[in-house]
Amino acid sequence: MLRISKLCENPSGLRLKLEGRIVSEWVSILEEQILECLKKTQKVLLDFSELRFVDKDGVEMLRRMPSEKIEIINCPGFIEEFLK
């Protein structure tokens, strides 16, 4: 399961807190949320503090996102290694 919570929304940025797991069945939903947010704001912060796992499909989707508009914060070390 993946919970996506919108926090701190303003014209210059939006923070999405992700809780749970980014796995294949949730990847498209998260991607849609991120792209929808980018239509409304200049930058999206993805807060990974409560994220427990990211599978291969999730990693690939995160790598496709425009790096100048997406910032990952509070990322657990083991997930950070997957994203490198």
Q: Could you characterize the architecture of this molecule?
A:
- The chain has 84 residues and is of the alpha/beta class.
- The chain has a single domain, classed as STAS domain (Transcription Regulator spoIIAA, 2-Layer Sandwich), CATH 3.30.750.24.
- Helix content is 39%, strand content 40%.
- It contains three helices and four strands.
- The protein has helices at residues 24-40, 56-64, 77-83; strands at 2-10, 13-22, 44-54, 70-73.
- Strands 1-2-3-4 form a four-stranded mixed sheet.
- Strand 2, helix 1 (24-40) and strand 3 form a beta-alpha-beta unit.
- Helix 1 runs parallel beside helix 2.
- It is globular.
- The chain starts with a strand and ends with a helix.
- The model has no long low-confidence stretch (mean pLDDT 92).
Give the topology:
Elements: E1 2-10, E2 13-22, H1 24-40, E3 44-54, H2 56-64, E4 70-73, H3 77-83
Parallel strand pairs: 2-3, 3-4
Antiparallel strand pairs: 1-2
**Form type:** globular
Mean pLDDT over the residues: 92
- Unreliable parts: none
Largest β-sheet summary? 4 strands, mixed
What CATH calls the topology is Transcription Regulator spoIIAA
Helix content: 25-40%
Element order: H for helix, E for strand: EEHEHEH
Spatial strand sequence of the major β-sheet: 1-2-3-4
Portion of residues in beta strands equals 35-45%
**Relevant CATH superfamily:** STAS domain
Which structural class matches the secondary elements? alpha/beta
Q: Distance between termini?
A: 24 Å
